[in-house]
Amino acid sequence: MLTVDKVNLHYGAAQALRGVSIAAPMGKITCVLGRNGVGKTSLLRAITGQQATSAGSIAFNGADLGGLAPYRRAKLGVGFVPQGREIFPLLTVKENLETGYAPVARKDRFIPDDIFSLFPILQTMLGRRGGDLSGGQQQQLAIGRALVTRPKILVLDEPTEGIQPSIIKDIGRAIRYLRDSTGMAILLVEQYLDFCRELADHVYIMDRGEIVHEGPAETLDTPEARRHLTV
Ligand SMILES: Nc1ncnc2c1ncn2[C@@H]1O[C@H](COP(=O)(O)OP(=O)(O)OP(=O)(O)O)[C@@H](O)[C@H]1O
């Protein structure tokens, strides 16, 4: 399980996270919702090690992640699908997937078949350049690349952003399959309420750098939760 305990994060004098505590258990989908700019991406940057925290602690399956570089966290099983996907446009689909080998032991440096069962389009397009893929296909590639790192927790930043409904469904199905078949933890940051309501086991809502609500997915329909999500 991933535990984030009373974490603060600053950009210079501006505080983006204020005493944030969340847990993402193994075998569960945990969703963090919130409007634009409330600190969701900052929380994921803190977890993946891309941004230093100024207080609190982050641990995964008993290992303290505090101060570890992103690649060390990847080696411990933290897989990341960034906002905007960050596909290498001039590398082929296969080469993009292979960039996930970096934190993996030599014997595991192959692309697991599961990735092509989840996203058959990646197999069809293995030789095409990443930049030639549609936004939805790039999102599938970004998830595939994270899976190549053999994560024990998959952290996704707004995977539905700018993506057509049919591919959103495929991504939802893939996330559920990963939870059920591998028992990995999944931590998802989203603005798309329906996607979270359908998928999540547990939800948190952030507002102005703080967690202001937590509960099972059904609690997203309470007036109190709605108030934090409407503009
Ligand atoms: N590199 C940075 N330098 C300074 N301030 C930043 C930086 N990145 C984010 N911020 C600020 O921190 C706050 C939280 O931003 P963050 O990107 O974490 O929010 P978010 O909820 O992920 O938003 P979005 O949904 O737009 O991605 C915002 O006020 C933002 O302007």
Characterization of the model:
The protein is α/β, with parallel strands linked by helices. The chain contains 9 helices and 10 strands. It starts with a strand and ends with a helix. It binds adenosine-5'-triphosphate. The site of adenosine-5'-triphosphate (ATP) has 12 residues, from strand 2 and helix 1.
SSE map:
Blueprint: E1 2-11, E2 14-24, E3 29-33, H1 40-48, E4 55-60, E5 63-64, H2 70-75, E6 78-81, H3 93-98, H4 113-118, H5 120-124, H6 135-148, E7 153-157, H7 165-182, E8 185-190, H8 193-199, E9 202-207, E10 210-216, H9 223-229
CATH architecture: 3-Layer(aba) Sandwich
Question: If strands are numbered along the chain, what order do they take across the biggest sheet?
Answer: 6-7-8-3-9-10
Mean pLDDT: 94
Question: What ligands are attached or bound here?
Answer: adenosine-5'-triphosphate
What gross morphology would you assign? globular
How much helicity do the residues have? 25-40%
Name of the CATH class = Alpha Beta
Main beta-sheet annotation: 6 strands, mixed
Query: Which parts are unreliable, with pLDDT below 50 for 5 consecutive residues or more?
Result: none
Number of domains: 1
Number of strands: 10
Fraction in beta strands: 25-35%
Number of helices: 9
CATH topology: Rossmann fold
